[in-house]
Amino acid sequence: MTGTGPAAPAAGLLRGLPPLPRLLIGTQFAFNIGFFAVLPFLTAHLGGTLALAGWLVGLVLGLRTFSQQGLFVVGGTLTDRFGPRPVVLAGCALRVAGFTWLGFAQDTWAVIGSVLLVGFAAALFSPAVETETVRQAVLHEAATGVARTRVLALFNAAGQAGALLGPPLGAALLPIGFRAACLAGAGVFVVVFLGHLRLMPCTPAKSPADTLASAPGGARAVLRNRRFLALCAAYGGYLIVYNQLYLALPQEVERATGGQAALGWLFTLSSVLVIAGQLPVSRWAARRLSPRTAMLLGLLLMAAGSLAAAALLPVRAFGGLGPSLVFVVLLSVGQMLVVPAARAWVPDLTDGHLGLGVGALSSSAGLLVLVGSAPLGALFGRGGVLPWLALAAVPAAAALCLPGRSGPMRPGFSKVGASTAGNPR
């Protein structure tokens, strides 16, 4: 990669950004507070309060991920066409409706419908925010020499800070009931909606639709790009493993301790690791690793985490939480390497169709999660070593799917820069 930039601390890096990327990073922080006030407790609610079978819990979680990640391409395409503001506002409004419905849902069909709405809401606002963040990171790289992966790492760390604050909020409300956590999450998104209605620019300096119209081939060109599709497959493997924080991890904690009390602490550990480590890891990776090597190392660490969890199942270390701890630690470090590298690689593989590329990356990954969640849910419902071995095979296979060696990032990527070149600094 090029342009590693100065080794500024997080606060200095944030202060050095223009207003729009600072707003986008704050947006990710707020999104995750509302989201993680609900999601970590969804598995226990479905399997406990509503008494759904393990395979059905896995299917519901897979549907949520697919309706979110699988439909990112819709949000990304709409962002290319209309700019991020209206897409973000629509997504926030739907998330409020979805969380409220989920809080009152009792029947299986209502749970599935509310979960699909919650996921589709994110399919609108998340790609809009991510697309504009990638675009701004490329522009900032061209203007200052600070590697785009460092800006994207700050975006990821802000999301993890929100993920750190969300579960305690949900846990504090759980004695009142799962409905209270859902309504609190909805309340956060009401605040986000109102804030963006006031603060987010109505349009980029130059509409992304202009870039989309001028770049040849559209979706056909992006989706026929074998290197981009290989990146999508590898990212899908990462997302399948990451999704096990909400499926395998709660079941393993229940098996080891007989309850869910430790789950909040494990989510806290994951968030603290990413908040503390994301920027140093990304700074090191920007100097020493290509995007491909960073993703390869991250995926192999995730595979090692699953294998280590399998090996530690008979061990009673840390109150039986040894498998969960090693899985969370290695998954978190792998995430720090994979996510910024994958997002930073997208502009160089999509030739100007940035929103479409960001959306397609997550959509294809979401489809793979949907395919893999129900079988993994059934395996983990049975317990034992086999589910962890199967899980370890996923990132190992994803590593084999990575595109061939990549050259340096192009800091002046013209078709991305053209869309917002007039943004104030």
UniProtKB/TrEMBL annotation:
<feature type="transmembrane region" description="Helical">
    <location>
        <begin position="151"/>
        <end position="170"/>
    </location>
</feature>
<keyword id="KW-0812">Transmembrane</keyword>
<feature type="transmembrane region" description="Helical">
    <location>
        <begin position="228"/>
        <end position="249"/>
    </location>
</feature>
<protein>
    <recommendedName>
        <fullName>Major facilitator superfamily (MFS) profile domain-containing protein</fullName>
    </recommendedName>
</protein>
<feature type="transmembrane region" description="Helical">
    <location>
        <begin position="358"/>
        <end position="379"/>
    </location>
</feature>
<dbReference type="InterPro" id="IPR050171">
    <property type="entry name" value="MFS_Transporters"/>
</dbReference>
<feature type="transmembrane region" description="Helical">
    <location>
        <begin position="261"/>
        <end position="281"/>
    </location>
</feature>
<feature type="transmembrane region" description="Helical">
    <location>
        <begin position="385"/>
        <end position="402"/>
    </location>
</feature>
<keyword id="KW-1133">Transmembrane helix</keyword>
<dbReference type="GO" id="GO:0005886">
    <property type="term" value="C:plasma membrane"/>
</dbReference>
<keyword id="KW-0472">Membrane</keyword>
<dbReference type="InterPro" id="IPR020846">
    <property type="entry name" value="MFS_dom"/>
</dbReference>
<dbReference type="InterPro" id="IPR036259">
    <property type="entry name" value="MFS_trans_sf"/>
</dbReference>
<keyword id="KW-1003">Cell membrane</keyword>
<feature type="transmembrane region" description="Helical">
    <location>
        <begin position="325"/>
        <end position="346"/>
    </location>
</feature>
<feature type="transmembrane region" description="Helical">
    <location>
        <begin position="23"/>
        <end position="42"/>
    </location>
</feature>
<dbReference type="GO" id="GO:0022857">
    <property type="term" value="F:transmembrane transporter activity"/>
</dbReference>
<feature type="transmembrane region" description="Helical">
    <location>
        <begin position="110"/>
        <end position="130"/>
    </location>
</feature>
<feature type="domain" description="Major facilitator superfamily (MFS) profile">
    <location>
        <begin position="1"/>
        <end position="410"/>
    </location>
</feature>
<feature type="transmembrane region" description="Helical">
    <location>
        <begin position="176"/>
        <end position="197"/>
    </location>
</feature>
<feature type="transmembrane region" description="Helical">
    <location>
        <begin position="48"/>
        <end position="66"/>
    </location>
</feature>
<keyword id="KW-0813">Transport</keyword>
<dbReference type="InterPro" id="IPR011701">
    <property type="entry name" value="MFS"/>
</dbReference>
<dbReference type="Pfam" id="PF07690">
    <property type="entry name" value="MFS_1"/>
</dbReference>
<feature type="transmembrane region" description="Helical">
    <location>
        <begin position="293"/>
        <end position="313"/>
    </location>
</feature>
